[in-house]
Amino acid sequence: MDTKFKKIVFENSDMIVNMWMKEIETLKDGNYTSSVSDELFESTNREFVNVIFSSIQHRGSTHVVEDFSEKLINLGWPLSYITDGLQVFRRVTIDFILSHTERIDSTYISELIRSVDLWTEPLIRQLVNEYSGSWEHIVSLQRVALQELSAPLIPVMDNITIMPLIGTIDTERAKLIMENLLDGVIKHNSEVVLMDITGVPVVDTMVAHHIIQAAEAVRLIGSTCILVGIRPEIAQTIVNLGINLDKFPTQSSLKKGFSAALNMTGRDIVENQAKHKQIQDMIDSLSRE
Q: Which domain holds residue 17?
């Protein structure tokens, strides 16, 4: 019976495709395709229905399905487009076959539904697996990228590095901060590390504990950690919580912290006298005119 149903579908594929296209068109106002151009929407729909027929013909496993799912993923179309399209195809196909047969009884209808489900289920399974695999890969890459950005260590001068921290600090991120600090200090041969917490919204007991641990670990490998970016409200919070930050230097701003780091490494900011004299000569010349 399944072969008979397939024969009906392929012999009348043009009519079924047209019916399917019309129903899919009514879904264009949905949230997943409302911003898609008419040309792209129509071409994608035609490609989709061709993929469906190809899958039926090859029992669900084809390279065409993989290529189509990859295209949709790259276009950013959600999985709901696929599930809705297959549901429409299932409904249109069953309605068409029932409307072109003289035999309508429960057994016939049951066999028809079973056959159509057997056609669409492998396709749904394969497309969902393709989507899931792609999303997992993307999420994994994004997680790695976020981890790298969440605790960057930036060398700004010989023996001086800066770690700007933005956002909340939880246990997992604190562990990453510790690892990046220690690896970076060794890699860049840092004598001083400036840990900038200007972008950290809240410094509570747990956050302060993590910062102290990181600073202490840096001290144990022979470097100094300067905590910078302590705003007045954070300073008040630290005092109220009774947190002891006496073991390593602190500065209110990155500028002050950098000046302190230069002093610790035997350097200082020196005004360019030649440039200053040139500017002064220009001012004197203009004043004489």
A: 2-147
